[in-house]
Amino acid sequence: MSNARFERIALIGIGLIGSSIAHAARRAGLAGQIVGSARTAATVRTALDLGIVDEGYATAPEAARGADLIILCTPVGICGAVAKEINEAGAFAQGAILTDVGSVKSAIVDDVTPHVPDGVHFIAGHPIAGTEQSGPEAGFAELFENRWCILTPTQDCDADAVAKLKAFWEHLGSHVEIMTPRHHDRVLAITSHVPHLIAFNIVNTAGHLERVNDQEVIKFSAGGFRDFTRIAASDPTMWRDVFLNNKEAVLEMLGRFTEDLTALQRAIRYDEGDTLHRLFSDARTLRQGIIEAGQDTDAPDFGRQAAAGPEKAEPPED
Amino acid sequence: MSNARFERIALIGIGLIGSSIAHAARRAGLAGQIVGSARTAATVRTALDLGIVDEGYATAPEAARGADLIILCTPVGICGAVAKEINEAGAFAQGAILTDVGSVKSAIVDDVTPHVPDGVHFIAGHPIAGTEQSGPEAGFAELFENRWCILTPTQDCDADAVAKLKAFWEHLGSHVEIMTPRHHDRVLAITSHVPHLIAFNIVNTAGHLERVNDQEVIKFSAGGFRDFTRIAASDPTMWRDVFLNNKEAVLEMLGRFTEDLTALQRAIRYDEGDTLHRLFSDARTLRQGIIEAGQDTDAPDFGRQAAAGPEKAEPPED
User: What is the pLDDT of residue B242?
Assistant: First the structure.
């Protein structure tokens, strides 16, 4: 593992991911100093109060100035603008590594690259980790442990810089994989973006029914629905940007999903029990692979404990 | 709470739900004797070995004979045939309560009612509880705690029998709600059946991609996909029967889901960021209701712990 220590790490954006990087980097002794900037003064204040950053700034160039590692932890849609702002202020240090944590990669590479001066190493990245919670208070040092981080360096990226950033993520607890931005966007479209879209969608479909009310959806959600609501609780701005910036792959995967769903729908309509049974059996196999790979727990029902006190509400009868 | 004790409880089918009822009823002192029958001799043997049933039988009439509570815990599709078999053997005791645990209610009421003799009280039921695991080994006494059980008695059901069955479920730890079979099927279509169908579907869509392989789907599943795989690991036979027997409500909800998804897809295609943001924000509210109602945990990421040792596999680049 290469040396993974940086003298000054600048976090541009201090939400769930930025603050978790700060906690994990500090714990692993990877940072001389950690500084950051955020869109609102309240977030900067919270990050300072919680000891997430040593110094907090109102603007990205102030945080980035003098940093040897700059991590863009903003929504995907503004990464290009932030890089431009830092560059125009002349705040990129020679030899610095610039990376990001965005959930799409082709668009970010396209948006950010024009604003990276010679002698600065831009290596786009994406830790596949997160929770449904947002903000600097939500971060914790263990977030990246045993999760994968994908780096998508372009062919002219400096090999030493890539090795150092790879080592940095490994010290945070992650496994690192290198792939092209385009392949990343395809993989994430199916493993993350379309699942989120579907989850947002079914929650809204449930919310608009006339003959089943919200209280009933809530009370009887343990039948499966609640599993979808966890990821549907994720940050709306982040996700808007993901879909607008990975349009091609998302629309392709969504087309396949809808095609497959239409076939299932047809099998239900025409009582094709054998088809249903076969397709449902196939789906079990992949679940087993995920558990064996340590990417989920096999505790029944995710190991949820029975909780206290549901509300009492009367449903309509129809 | 009425007296909820039975002298002989017969479980027809001893899988996750049947065995959990046995554990919970025994713990609460609700049963003189618990007996059961299962489709295979191996399941009967396991249930006896684990102390789930006091007596095990090869056929439903043998188990049902002399029981004052008979619970059909088989897949939905065979409930009618099982009731017929018990009735034709003359094995229903006068005054007995017959119930079931199936995930659809109208079809079961239609299928079972013709085979219930006078003096036997058939009250269809559905505990909204479960895990992705199957079989007698999967059962546990706490499964029903703080979960809802829906009973769908018809208008001519005996009030005392309904009160006793309600008390039984309350002693197992559940909250009980009474509604019509038709309303039940509508509520469950959106809170359980369509979510399962979508989960099965996306897992299969992911499995059929040419340019993203299964190992990649598994490795990067922490981005959201894995949440869907838990419910897609559920028993295929049970779910085939659910869809074939709740066709009308499932197809209606699926139509709405697809309509809403098409609108989201269109918003992505035409860069309608405000529409996406608004719809994603709406979805958060319902999640909060589910947590407040004690039907899910607000531990980030369901409180999953980082687990050990993922496989190493090389992905294709494209």
Answer: 96
Three-state SS string over chain B comes to: CCCCCEEEEEEECCCHHHHHHHHHHHHCCCEEEEEEECCCHHHHHHHHHCCCCCEEECCHHHHHCCCCEEEECCCHHHHHHHHHHHHHCCCCCCCCEEEECCCCCHHHHHHHHHHCCCCCEECCEEECCCCCCCCHHHCCCCCCCCCEEEECCCCCCCHHHHHHHHHHHHHCCCEEEECCHHHHHHHHHHHHHHHHHHHHHHHHHHHCCCCCCHHHHHHCHHHCHHHHHHHHCCCHHHHHHHHHHCHHHHHHHHHHHHHHHHHHHHHHHCCCHHHHHHHHHHHHHHHHHHHHCCCCCCCHHHHCCCCCCCCCCCCCCC
Most B CBs within 10 A among A155, A170, A204, A239, hence the mutation to make, goes to A204
Rounded to whole angstroms, what are the CA distances from B103 to A191, B126, B192, B240?
Answer: 29, 6, 9, 11
| Total beta-carbon pairs less than 8 A apart between chain A and chain B | 417
**Coil, strand, or helix at residue A145?**
coil
Which uninterrupted H or E stretch holds A245? helix A236-245
Longest dimension (CA), chain B: 70
Structure tokens that stand for A136 in this block: 């600097």
Cα–Cα distance, A294 to B309 (Å, whole number): 6
Task: Enumerate residues 111 to 150 of chain A having a beta carbon within 8 A of any beta carbon in chain B.
Answer: 128-133, 138, 142, 145-148, 150
**Continuous segment of H or E residues that includes residue A109:** helix A106-112
Q: Are A202 and B231 in contact (CB under 8 A)?
A: no
Residue B191 Cα distances to A205, A212, A213, B186, B290, angstroms: 11, 10, 11, 9, 12
What percent of chain B has pLDDT above 90? 80
Residue A316 has pLDDT above 60, yes or no: no
Q: What is the DSSP letter of A50?
A: T
- Over the stretch B187-209, which tens digit does the pLDDT of each residue have? 999 999 999 999 999 999 999 99
pTM above the 0.95 mark?
no
Strand partners, B8: B33
From B202, B269, B297, residue closest to A304, measured CB to CB: B297
Location of structure tokens 């099927």: B185
Q: Measured between CA atoms, how close is A138 to chain B, in angstroms? A: 9
Write out the two tokens for B272.
């309608």
The answer to whether A35 and A56 have CB atoms below 8 angstroms apart is: yes
Helix (H) or strand (E) holding A125: strand A125-127
- Tell me the β-bridge partners of A85: none
Structure tokens at A299: 């505790």
Asked if B279 and A200 come within 8 Å (Cβ–Cβ), the reply is yes
The answer on pLDDT for A1 being more than 70 is no
Q: Do A204 and B173 touch (CB under 8 A)?
A: no
Q: B223 with A101: CB under 8 angstroms?
A: no
The whole-angstrom distance between residue B4's C-alpha and the CA centroid of its chain comes to 23
Q: How many whole angstroms separate alpha carbon B52 and alpha carbon B108? A: 26
Q: Could you write out the DSSP letters of every residue in A75-89? A: -GGGHHHHHHHHHHT
**Interface touch B280/A218, C-beta < 8 Å:** no
Which residues in chain A have Cβ-Cβ distances shorter than 8 Å to B311?
Answer: 292-293
In 3D space, the residue among A144, A152, A28, A254 whose CA is nearest the CA of residue B206 turns out to be A254
Q: Report the percentage of chain B scoring pLDDT > 70.
A: 95
